[in-house]
Write a structure and sequence with these properties.
single chain, mainly alpha, 5 helices, flat
Length: 104
Amino acid sequence: MPEKIANFLFRSENVLYVWILLVGAAGVAVMRLIQAIGLFALLRLKHIRLELLLLGGWCVFVLLVNGPIASPKYRLPIEPALVLAAAAGLVQFQSWLAAMRRRA
């Protein structure tokens, strides 16, 4: 399997497609990291834990109904939760940058 992946990535005839694919995958990884940071930032806020529990319950329900999410159309009901987590992560990153600037 790793050999097939390496052949596809590094010995492909369409190099532009491979680079677009790698940049896209890196972008998804960065957004997932931002969303994870945002989720942890939201979990620290005690006054919205019930809302987060309801949102998490909705996500679990969608996953139970649809199974593993392999297609965007099945991920669509979870997108609002992912957007909230990403926004919270970006706010957390912005406040971290502001704190770094104040120290400097």
